[in-house]
Amino acid sequence: MGEVSMGGNIPASCSGEERRRGKRFVIDSIVFPFLGSRDEDHTCFEYLLLDIGLHGVRISVPRWVVNRERLREGDRINLHVPFELEHRSYDQGRVVWASWDKEMDAQVCGIEVTKQMPLYNRVYFSLSSREVTVDLGAFSSVEDLGKRLLKDLFLLKKGVLIYLNHLVAYFSRVGEYPSRDYPRLKEVFLDDIRNRVRDHRDSLEGLYDDFRGEGRPGVAISGFLDLEELRDMVESEISLEILSTTFQKEAAMFYLQAIKDLEKKLYEKYNAVVMLYIKSI
After folding, report:
1. CA-to-CA distance for 81 and 79, rounded, in angstroms?
2. 100 DSSP 8-state letter
3. Do 90 and 60 belong together in one domain?
4. pTM score of the predicted model
5. Residue 22 carries which DSSP code?
6. Structural domain total, the chain
7. Could you report the per-residue pLDDT of 101-125, keeping only the tens digit for each?
8. Residues 141-160: tens digit of each pLDDT
9. At residue 54, what are phi and psi to the nearest 5 degrees?
10. Same domain, 116 and 151
11. Which are the contacts of 178, defined by CB distance < 8 A and separation ≥ 6?
12. How far apart are CA 33 and CA 94, in angstroms?
């Protein structure tokens, strides 16, 4: 789809004052961070949703994230949260301003959300009702949908590990490093990454198996999940910048891009779990 500003889709029912001033709605019901990513380097970051308007959203990025990564004006980012307006979904945009808020001890950014897509998500944030909306569809309950999301998280992380294994095997055969150097590189760098991905895959599988267990019928997702632990399992273990500098062959970049595409889906599923969590409190 082409890129258009959310402001270009202002409902006719909005008042003239709202059109001129870009009326904003403070979001005080969401106190859990979501995961976003920067398009340029696929870097993942945590953010809190502060308020929304007809032209975009305002987010805060906590200090512990800014210490690693700081968003800058002009950055194109993906919020991985579908904002629904008139049956269209918006979740990507551009940082139009950024400043430090001493009171919140966080970087605050204004995001112009511009890219629209058909709405296919089961869990989304409605701009008309200004709340999380769940479309169960074929699912029998919120818990049933939660099980599916946890299964998706496990399968996506499993996919990351599969591509990473292909990448390691590829470089063992046709790597760019001298044969005497590769074993050391594999031991101290690639194996460490692979072990962390494997551990997170196993943890996600265990979480899914536990939640769907017969002893947990009708358990609310908020009474079962620790979102901080889940976020640690979901976040990327792989720095595209480091690996793309280390391995520059085209075949390697194919594997790395495939991994990053799966990670975007992981962030989307994780954020859907966060919204279900909020709905179940």
Report:
1. 5
2. E
3. yes
4. 0.84
5. T
6. 2
7. 999 999 999 999 887 776 777 888 8
8. 888 888 999 999 999 999 99
9. -75, -10
10. no
11. none
12. 19
